[in-house]
Amino acid sequence: MKATLSEADHSRLIEMAWEDRTPFEAIRSVYGLDETDVIRLMRRSLKPGSFRLWRQRVSGRHTKHQRLRHPAVSRAYCPSQYKTR
């Protein structure tokens, strides 16, 4: 795992981990952290209850693992996710 992440990178990494459609492979390509590293970081960064909710959310979720995704899904986020309000 990378030894140092800026505060902004740390925050973005947590955001990417929470997002349903951002696969762990995308996190690895941007930050060099595999799924195990992301789990460790989330365990350290979140409250215990929040960590448990996150683990329940991502466990078995097809969109968090690129190899489990349907081939038609090529995007990493919902089309309405980043619309300005």
Write the layout of secondary structure elements.
Layout: H1 7-18, H2 24-31, H3 35-45, H4 48-58
For the report, how would you describe the main beta sheet?
none
The topology string of helices and strands comes to HHHH
Residue-averaged pLDDT: 81
Which quaternary structure do these chains form? single chain
Number of helices: 4
Tell me the strand percentage band. Answer: under 5%
Intertermini distance: 36 Å
The unreliable regions are: none
Global morphology = globular
- What share of the residues lie within helices? 40-55%
Query: SS-based structural class?
Result: mainly alpha
Radius of gyration: 13 Å
E-strand count: 0
Explain what the structure shows:
The protein has 85 residues and is mainly α. Helix content is 49%, strand content 0%. It has 4 helices and no strands. The protein has helices at residues 7-18, 24-31, 35-45, 48-58. The longest helix has 12 residues, at 7-18. The chain is globular, with a radius of gyration of 13 Å. The mean pLDDT is 81.
Annotation keywords:
globular, 85 residues, mainly alpha, single chain
In short:
The protein is mostly helical. The protein is built from 4 helices and no strands.
